[in-house]
Amino acid sequence: MTERNYMLNAVAVIAAKELREGLRNRWAVSATVILAAVALTIVLLGSAPTGLVRISPLSVTVVSLSSLTIFLVPLIALLLSYDALAGEIERGTMALLLSYPVSHAQVIAGKFLGHAAILTIATVIGYGAAGVALVFDGNQVEANAWNAFSFMVGSSVLLGMAFVALGYLVSATARDPRTAAGIAVGLWLFFAFIYDLALLGLLVADGGKHIAVSFLNVVLLANPADVYRLLNLTGFSNVSMFAGMTGIAGQLNVGTSFLLSTLIGWTAVPLVLATFVFARREL
Predict the structure, then answer these.
(1) Cys-Cys crosslink for 270: which of 35, 94, 165, 252, Cβ 3.0 to 4.6 Å?
(2) Which has the closest alpha carbon to 262: 214, 224, 208?
(3) Nearest-angstrom CA–CA distance, 192 and 45
């Protein structure tokens, strides 16, 4: 076996271990049930008014799920990953794992792939239940709405991966799992609530006098939740119109490809930093 194949095999073994443990601890099942319950509730409640105003029920679902995903998926991702490193270090199992011929980077890569698989399974099945419910309900949905829905599911997975990576950075730097849990909850509150509230307060105080659109673009990119919101609520005309984001979509100076790259960057950068910190941490 070549060195490259051995490295890939080690990563795959660690990823499979994380996936098995996630299924054994019913993490995947719990996350799937939560996401499916939310999605089905939105379908049942959101499809009622669409017949009167002739709006695609799937567009309603995309707008509603995109808004709720910003709060729900990051929380699930952080709860899944905050003790991935700190917990094993405290229990002493990390020292045992590193006694084998595996590097710190392989450990993080394997764990991340395992947790990403859990999150992907939960998101695809949970949100997919909403699409299945609409089909069986006999709703006629145009192709563009299905494209928006599929894009929303895929970008939800990317958002979750970004917060898994942030959870790893927290886990690599925290002294113990309890500290990591507190920091993870603080991160979730900051990105899901505080950041946008502070930005809104700043815009209201400015009154449109000094803050330029270019500055607003940069500020929004500094929050992965806002990047996700821009991707899903401005990327498709039928969705942006219903979400009231048509004006913002016309003023944005960044395209979908750039937003996707930014969201991927929100995954890559924390993972690299977590690997750097973890490699220099005493076990």
Answers:
(1) 165
(2) 224
(3) 24
d(CA 211, CA 234): 21
Which amino acid is residue 64, in one-letter code? S
* Cα 61 from Cα 266, distance rounded (Å): 26
How many CB atoms lie under 10 A from the CB of residue 140? 8
The pLDDT, as a whole number, for residue 262 is: 94
**Angle, helix 104-136 to helix 143-173, in steps of 10 degrees:** 150
Q: From CA 252, how far away is CA 234, in angstroms rounded?
A: 9
Task: In the chain, count H helices and then E strands.
Answer: 15, 0
The structure's pTM equals 0.89
Nearest to residue 158, comparing CAs of 189, 195, 191, 116?
116
Cα(265)–Cα(272) distance, rounded to whole angstroms? 10
- CA separation for the pair 166, 149 (Å, rounded): 26
How far apart are alpha carbons 265 and 277 in whole angstroms? 18
Q: Give 112-148 pLDDT, tens digit per residue.
A: 999 999 999 999 999 998 888 877 766 666 667 788 8
At 228 the three-state DSSP class reads helix
Alpha helices, DSSP H only, in 207-255?
213-221, 224-234, 237-243, 246-251
Q: Which amino acid is at 135?
A: V
